[in-house]
Specification:
The structure is a single chain. The strands form 2 sheets. The chain has a two-stranded antiparallel sheet. A two-stranded antiparallel sheet has the order 2-3. It is built from 4 helices and 4 strands; from the N terminus they run E-E-E-E-H-H-H-H. The longest helix is centred in the C-terminal third of the chain and has 20 residues. It has one domain. The protein is 48% helix and 11% strand. By secondary structure, it is mostly helical.
């Protein structure tokens, strides 16, 4: 499937006419379950509760055939964000600790 390749919610513009996506710098072929996991686990989406995302997963293409792959991709992407924040843990302590907890929840 075609993907933008960048799940940052800052690249989604909403107005009265609908929803628009910008920034196709990383666009290309992707796996549906990995793309959906990237949206759910992107650091810009942390303010959206899991129960909201989980209601939307079917609209993102997650079904009983790829749910295990989706869960694995979520763990992997959460770990990636933890690694990114590790480098800045002394300056972004709250974000780092929130991400560390996120990884613990997903891997626990």
């Amino acid at each position: 499937m075609f993907s933008r390749g960048d799940a940052n919610l800052l690249n989604w513009l909403h107005d009265d006419g609908g929803l628009h996506v910008v920034d196709f710098e990383f666009s290309g072929h992707s796996d549906v379950s990995v793309d959906a996991a990237d949206h759910v686990e992107h650091i810009s989406a942390h303010h959206i509760p899991d129960h909201v995302w989980l209601v939307l997963t079917d609209k993102l293409g997650v079904d009983h055939h790829n749910r295990a792959r989706f869960a694995a991709a979520r763990r992997t992407i959460a770990l990636r964000w933890l690694a990114v924040l590790w480098k800045q843990r002394h300056h972004r302590t709250d974000e780092f600790l929130r991400q560390l907890n996120r990884v613990r929840v997903l891997t626990g």
